[in-house]
């Protein structure tokens, strides 16, 4: 069956659908390069301070919940799977599968965000571990533990903001997919959103060991 | 008497396609967006320029003729923030780049037209936030926002200024992204990389810097904002933070940023020199690759802003050596421009005067950069007027003159009208004279030890400061003149044909002003860039 | 059809490997390997990221240009972290000059 979207799918500045698809893909990858540098500033600061204050960073890391962190990592990996399957469904013109997989991705993303908010961050707040708000930990390394938690909250916070934006974008795509907007020649938005989603997953893949697994847990 | 209506203006073009305000504010046409940026940055130029006027007036007297030091700090900060982020960085890419990139490669528009419009709105939001900071009392950290002053000790409008710059940074990123994708994917058939005008190579290199550098500024300003809001101590020595880390992160962007400001101007000069010498560029691939080399090496030298900050001497040595390296591709360009002009058929219309001014003044500014790259010398002149003179020679004597040259060169294409070249040449001469009178004394002042960012100075520096302020007044007049005749020309200038300069390049094959879709049919490119024949008769 | 369509099996296989690696890195953290803890953890993270990039993000079937974009991003990240670190690592190599008062005879 011919793709009903083929005629309207081509934007006026492009010569053909292939050029449009390549431009969209390249555009998102270039944007992800900017995101690498955006998070990169945080990773640079983290690297410098971890080297300078390793004992404090170890102590801070041990105060985090490894189990929750590992489960959350698993949740995000699941969401990457469902996202990849969603893109595949769009490529094959399978509307129901696309909607289902997008819905699953959104749910998993929300689960991640809620887990961080209600389980981890709330717990840290109750324990008096939030710099600038109620940091009350004592001990010989208190200052560097506080610095560790600065990075913990800022890095996971910036990551969470990216997740929220991602969930928002996926919700919009979900509605469009439900309306039958996508097809084999018109799915650039799903693919580029997928690239963004996988990137946010990759950031977490690095945040997990760097924040939760410093110095081992033996 | 208005000139007779010309074919290109009765015929549909991008200007008369729709006159409504909505059609301008919701346009996705790259040419209109370029004009939206033109209006905005001109406005910001005069805001930043007003701050400079007040500064130079104040410096007429050793004890400060006009303002208290606290107010002076706000003036130089406003001048820096507005000029760097809201004039220099967007100027050529957002105005000339937006207008010309699709036309030069033979496309109908950029790859992402709606993103282009978004980038202008983002720019305006950032600008509004910074203007709020200025009006609400100003910022006095300098445009460099050094910690811990910016995070802990000031009660001025650092938040709204820093966040305004943060927001405006995304405009820069989106513009760069658009250009990179467009240049990679939308070149017309036959337009290979090495047939592109060198302006496009310059814009491409600039876009690489915008994409890879600006995000680091964004996160750095975010950290400053978080530290102000929540007193988290990322840069606070009291909890083990290091203010020098801020400087590393800040300059990682802000040094390449100065190449964002100069590279497009160099691209313009390549276009001007070839057209007004009626000769192909000498060493095309050298000039093309030097743009990319500048972009790459520019990311390796940021520590030369930090030689006396407490940074390790060994890091300083590395940065010093690399800073010498970054001068080489720039010099290559200058040699190639000179060789292009040699035995060319040179005419001296205003754009060419600006190009010649660029070459001379940029060379001077660039050479003084080598003084500053030398660790031992910089220890003496860091934070003095020597530095101020150095970067103004490059930014104003270089980049701004390139911008003005490009604006004049493509003005007939953009508006369909010719400006009066006599007045334009006069303005160029006034700018050149005023510029040198303003900034050359500052080299001497700096070397003699006058610190920058000071509202008062010892009496022995009086004469040089007066000379500099006198020059600034001449420079100011020089900048006002084009404002008058360019606006005049939009209604009253004689009609320009498609190619008043006899220049090569796809943009000159279209009517002036061009139709909305740029080309009737996608052009096919068969000749090299700058395919000027031997000894063509010069125009005018 | 635009773009390469990947088999479902491939996605599930990669998914399984990613979960296994997550479990592995969490488990290894409970062993005492000294400074190797960090190296192993980061190596596993790099493997996971590579799998996501190659298969979920489709880099395995992408153009050279896109691979160049990713490479550029990683190189620039390395420059940022690496060159900044040279400062902090070499700070103590030169003794800090004493203030002038210390050279005044008492």
**Percent in helix of chain C:** 55-70%
- Euclidean distance between termini CA atoms of chain C: 87 Å
What's the order of the H and E elements of chain C?
Answer: HHH
Give unreliable regions of chain C as ranges: none
Low-confidence stretches of chain B: 1-5, 535-540
CATH architecture of chain B: Up-down Bundle
Strand content of chain C: under 5%
Question: Total domains of chain B, how many?
Answer: 1
Structural class of chain B: mainly alpha
Which outline of chain B best applies?
globular
Computed over alpha carbons, the radius of gyration of chain C is 23 Å
Would you count the extended β strands of chain C for me?
Answer: 0
Descriptors:
heterotrimer, B: about 550 residues, mainly alpha, Cytochrome C Oxidase, Chain A, 16 helices, globular
Write the layout of secondary structure elements.
The complex is a heterotrimer of chains A (218), B (540) and C (106).
Chain A lengths: L5 H4 L7 H36 L1 H9 L3 H26 L3 H32 L15 H37 L9 H25 L6
Helix pairs in contact in A: 2-6, 2-7, 3-6, 4-5, 4-7, 5-6, 6-7
Chain B lengths: L6 H4 L10 H5 L4 H29 L10 H37 L7 H23 L13 H5 L4 H28 L12 H33 L12 H35 L6 H14 L15 H29 L8 H24 L1 H7 L3 H31 L5 H28 L13 H31 L48
Chain C lengths: L7 H21 L7 H21 L7 H27 L16
Helix pairs in contact in C: 1-2
Structure overview:
Chain A has helices spanning 6-9, 17-52, 54-62, 66-91, 95-126, 142-178, 188-212. Chain A is mainly α. Chain A has a single domain (18-212), classed as Four Helix Bundle (Hemerythrin (Met), subunit A) (Up-down Bundle). The longest helix of chain A is centred in the C-terminal third of the chain and has 37 residues, at 142-178. Chain A is elongated. Chain A starts with 5 loop residues before the first helix and ends in a 6-residue tail after the last helix. Chain B has one domain (30-509): Cytochrome C Oxidase, Chain A (Up-down Bundle), CATH 1.20.210. Chain B is built from 16 helices and no strands. Chain B has helices at 7-10, 21-25, 30-58, 69-105, 113-135, 149-153, 158-185, 198-230, 243-277, 284-297, 313-341, 350-373, 375-381, 385-415, 421-448, 462-492. The longest helix of chain B is centred in the first third of the chain and has 37 residues, at 69-105. Chain B is globular. Chain C has 106 residues and is mostly helical. Chain C has 2 domains: 1-57; 63-89. Chain C contains 3 helices and no strands. Chain C has helices spanning 8-28, 36-56, 64-90. The radius of gyration of chain C is 23 Å and the shape is elongated. The model of chain C has no long low-confidence stretch (mean pLDDT 91). Chains in contact: A-B, A-C, B-C. Chains A and C meet through helix 2, helix 4 and helix 7 of A and helix 1, helix 2 and helix 3 of C.
């Amino acid at each position: 069956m011919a793709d009903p979207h083929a005629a309207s799918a081509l934007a006026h500045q492009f010569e053909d659908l292939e050029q449009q698809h390549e431009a969209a893909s390249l555009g998102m990858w270039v944007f992800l390069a900017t995101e690498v540098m955006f998070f990169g500033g945080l990773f640079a600061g983290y690297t410098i301070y971890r080297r300078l204050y390793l004992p404090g960073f170890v102590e801070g890391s041990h105060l985090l919940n490894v189990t929750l962190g590992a489960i959350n990592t698993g949740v995000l990996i699941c969401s990457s799977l469902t996202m990849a399957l969603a893109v595949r469904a769009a490529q094959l013109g399978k509307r129901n599968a696309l909607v289902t997989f997008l819905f699953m991705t959104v749910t998993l993303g929300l689960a991640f965000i809620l887990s961080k908010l209600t389980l981890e961050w709330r717990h840290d707040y109750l324990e008096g571990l939030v710099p600038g708000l109620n940091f009350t930990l004592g001990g010989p390394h208190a200052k560097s533990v506080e610095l560790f938690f600065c990075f913990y909250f800022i890095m996971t916070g910036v990551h969470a903001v990216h997740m929220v934006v991602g969930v928002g974008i996926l919700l919009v795509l979900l509605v469009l997919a439900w309306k039958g907007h996508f097809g084999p020649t018109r799915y650039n938005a799903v693919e580029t959103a997928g690239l963004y989603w996988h990137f946010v997953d990759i950031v977490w893949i690095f945040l997990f060991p760097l924040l939760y697994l410093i110095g081992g847990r033996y | 008497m208005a000139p007779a209506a010309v074919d290109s203006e009765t015929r549909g073009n991008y200007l008369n396609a729709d006159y409504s305000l909505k059609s301008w504010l919701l346009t996705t046409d790259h040419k209109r967006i370029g004009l939206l940026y033109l209006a905005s940055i001109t406005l910001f130029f005069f805001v930043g320029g007003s701050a400079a006027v007040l500064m130079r007036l104040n410096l007429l007297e050793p004890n400060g003729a006009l303002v208290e030091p606290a107010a002076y700090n706000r003036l130089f900060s406003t001048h820096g923030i507005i000029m760097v982020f809201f004039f220099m960085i967007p100027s050529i890419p957002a105005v000339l780049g937006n207008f010309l990139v699709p036309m030069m490669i033979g496309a109908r528009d950029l790859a992402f037209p709606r993103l282009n419009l978004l980038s202008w709105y983002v720019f305006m939001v950032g600008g509004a936030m910074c203007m709020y900071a200025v009006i609400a009392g100003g910022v006095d950290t300098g445009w460099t926002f050094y910690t811990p002053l910016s995070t802990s000790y000031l009660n001025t409008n650092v938040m709204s200024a820093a966040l305004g710059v943060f927001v405006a940074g995304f405009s820069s990123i989106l513009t760069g992204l658009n250009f990179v994708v467009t240049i990679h994917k939308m070149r017309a058939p036959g337009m290979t990389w090495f047939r592109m005008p060198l302006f496009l190579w310059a814009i491409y290199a600039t876009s690489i810097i915008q994409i890879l550098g600006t995000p680091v500024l964004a996160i750095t300003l975010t950290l400053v904002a978080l530290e102000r809001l929540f007193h988290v101590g990322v840069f606070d020595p009291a909890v083990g933070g290091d203010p020098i880390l801020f400087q590393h992160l800040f300059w990682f962007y802000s040094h390449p940023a100065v190449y964002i400001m100069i590279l497009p101007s160099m691209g313009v000069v390549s276009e001007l020199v070839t057209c007004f010498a009626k000769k192909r560029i000498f060493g095309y691939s050298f000039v093309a690759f030097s743009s990319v080399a500048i972009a790459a090496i520019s990311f390796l030298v940021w520590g030369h802003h930090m030689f006396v900050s407490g940074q390790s001497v060994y890091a300083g040595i590395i940065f010093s050596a690399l800073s010498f390296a970054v001068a080489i591709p720039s010099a290559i360009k200058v040699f190639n421009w000179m060789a292009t002009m040699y035995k060319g058929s040179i005419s001296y219309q205003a754009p060419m005067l600006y190009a010649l001014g660029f070459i001379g003044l940029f060379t001077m500014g660039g050479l003084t950069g080598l003084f500053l790259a030398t660790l031992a010398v910089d220890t003496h002149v860091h934070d003095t007027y020597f530095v101020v003179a150095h970067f103004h020679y490059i930014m104003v004597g270089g980049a701004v003159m390139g911008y003005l040259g490009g604006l004049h060169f493509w003005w007939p294409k953009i508006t369909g009208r010719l400006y009066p070249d006599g007045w334009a040449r006069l303005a160029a001469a006034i700018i050149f004279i005023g510029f040198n009178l303003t900034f050359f004394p500052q080299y001497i002042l700096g070397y003699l030890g006058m610190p920058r960012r000071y509202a008062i100075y010892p009496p022995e520096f009086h004469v040089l400061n007066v000379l500099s302020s006198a020059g600034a007044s001449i420079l100011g007049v020089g900048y006002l003149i084009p404002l008058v005749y360019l606006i005049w020309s939009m209604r009253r200038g004689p009609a320009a044909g498609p190619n008043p300069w006899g220049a090569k390049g796809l943009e000159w094959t279209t009517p002036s002003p061009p139709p909305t879709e740029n080309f009737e049919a996608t052009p096919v490119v068969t000749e090299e860039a700058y395919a000027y024949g031997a000894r063509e008769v010069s125009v005018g | 059809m635009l773009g390469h369509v990947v088999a479902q099996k491939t996605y599930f296989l990669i998914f399984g490997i990613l979960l296994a690696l997550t479990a592995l890195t969490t488990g290894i953290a409970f062993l005492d390997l000294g400074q190797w803890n960090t190296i192993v953890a980061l190596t596993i993270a790099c493997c996971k990221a590579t799998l996501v990039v190659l298969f979920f993000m489709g880099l395995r079937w992408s153009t050279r240009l896109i691979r160049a974009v990713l490479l550029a991003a990683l190189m620039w990240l390395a420059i940022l972290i690496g060159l900044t670190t040279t400062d902090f690592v070499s700070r103590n190599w030169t003794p800090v000059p004493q203030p002038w008062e210390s050279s005044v005879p008492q």
